[in-house]
Fold this sequence. Notes:
Blueprint: E1 2-7, H1 19-22, H2 27-37, E2 42-47, H3 51-64, E3 67-71, H4 80-88, E4 93-97, E5 119-122, H5 127-134
Parallel strand pairs: 1-2, 1-3, 3-4, 4-5
Helix pairs in contact: 3-4
GO molecular function, one term: 3-dehydroquinate dehydratase activity
Organism: Dokdonia pacifica
InterPro entries: DHquinase_II, DHquinase_II_CS, DHquinase_II_sf
Amino acid sequence: MKLRIINGPNLNLLGKREPEIYGGKSFEDYFKDLQIKYNHIELSYVQSNIEGELITHIQDADTMYDGIILNAAAYTHTSVGIGDAVGAIEIPVIEVHISNTFGREEFRHQSYISKYAKGVILGFGLQSYDLAIQSFL
Ligand code: DQA
């Protein structure tokens, strides 16, 4: 099993960025925990702040992985292009969010990705990624 985690803008700042919302741990550290916990799965991750790069990562993953765990961050709420990319590929995509976006500002309630996602997991902190991995097992 090969899973690709794709993180969008500002998620490189996890641990420093609004820790009351996103927690105090960097994604690099959390990713190491995931690799230890799921050592029988080939996990890889990539982060970009650039919309077009995220679209390319989604397209490229289609032939190389069994599934994508996608946190498109702020682009979730704005990007028709990322939504279209998720709709265009064959492998399942699980949309994840660290925070409960429905408990936050109104503009975070809209997602251009959910329509094409196999499922959506949000509000469990970094554990949202772990739950998404479990959905593939
Ligand atoms: C987020 C929620 C988004 O609304 C926000 O723009 C993010 C992170 C989350 O994981 O909770 O950057 O996707």
